[in-house]
Amino acid sequence: MPTDLRTTNFLGFDLVNATYAQVAAELDRLSREDRLSLVVTPNVDHFVMLRGNESSSETTQRFDRAYQSATLRLCDSRVLQGLAWLRGVQLNVITGSDLTEMLFRGGWLDGRKVALVGGDESMLADLRARFPEVDLSQHIPPMGVLDNEPAIARIEEFLKGGDWHYILFAIGAPRSEIIAHRLMAVEGVRGVAFCIGASIEFLLGRKARAPKWMQAARLEWAFRLATEPRRLWRRYLLSGPKIIAIVREWQRS
């Protein structure tokens, strides 16, 4: 599905090169169409999965197909931006967390039907209390949903015929992207499927964002590692550095 936003190719994918306001306006346009659009937010972890040693696995191949079919790919990483710049490629960063906050706080979702797939039971109540103008509903899939066909079918039933404007997937990568991509072929599912990671947790203050100076210095990963070391050490210390070799190989080819 084409977009009028300017894009730049990096690591084999066309990434949107626009401002937050331009992206929000494009999402608003897409949300009014009678089909499902898919918005993904590539970061270092995603590209390591897509282009690293694990790229031959069935799950990664499904992840790649989702990325290939995405309507918009937004660069979610200042580290990626820096690596691209070193190779003469200019990328604008549009983080999923900042864009999600902009959509909620900027009134872009006011009066719109928004489905949240993921989170916990208290999350919906907290969102409704803070953003009463947004017509919010929620479906909470079980753990291991990607390998649970009945659970995926329940997501489909929840979303079919709902006349949604936005569907926020908060079940993590690559689950969000793979299931959202599958829904693009399901009749009666419409709106913008936006894979948002932990954006709602940041929006509600359940998790802290890195200070602005750390974000500007491309050190947000270090802040997250310090706050969640047991969960994130493998991603940032073992998997993450593989991106350097991936970028070099892309440049050679």
Can you describe what's shown?
With 253 residues, this protein is an alpha/beta fold. The chain has one domain (13-203). The protein is 48% helix and 14% strand. It has 13 helices and eight strands. The strands form two sheets. The protein has a six-stranded parallel sheet, sandwiched between helices. Helix 8 (175-183) links the parallel strand 7 and strand 8. Helix 3 (58-69) packs across helix 8 (175-183) and helix 11 packs across helix 12. It is globular, with a radius of gyration of 17 Å. The two termini are 27 Å apart.
Compile the SSE list and pairings.
Layout: E1 7-10, E2 13-16, H1 20-31, E3 36-40, H2 44-51, H3 58-69, E4 72-73, H4 78-86, H5 96-105, E5 113-118, H6 121-130, E6 135-139, H7 149-159, E7 166-170, H8 175-183, E8 191-195, H9 199-203, H10 212-216, H11 220-227, H12 229-239, H13 242-252
Parallel strand pairs: 3-4, 3-8, 5-6, 5-7, 7-8
Antiparallel strand pairs: 1-2
State the helix count: 13
Which shape, going by the Cα principal axes? Answer: globular
Q: What is the domain tally?
A: 1
What portion of residues belong to β-strands? 5-15%
Q: Unreliable runs, pLDDT <50, ≥5 residues?
A: none
Mean pLDDT: 94
Helix content percent band: 40-55%
Q: SSE string, helix = H, strand = E?
A: EEHEHHEHHEHEHEHEHHHHH
Q: Which structural category fits the helices and strands?
A: alpha/beta
Q: Strand count, sense and closure of the main sheet?
A: 6 strands, parallel
**Widest beta sheet: strand line-up:** 4-3-8-7-5-6
The termini sit apart by 27 Å
CA gyration radius, whole angstroms: 17 Å
Compute the number of strand runs.
Answer: 8
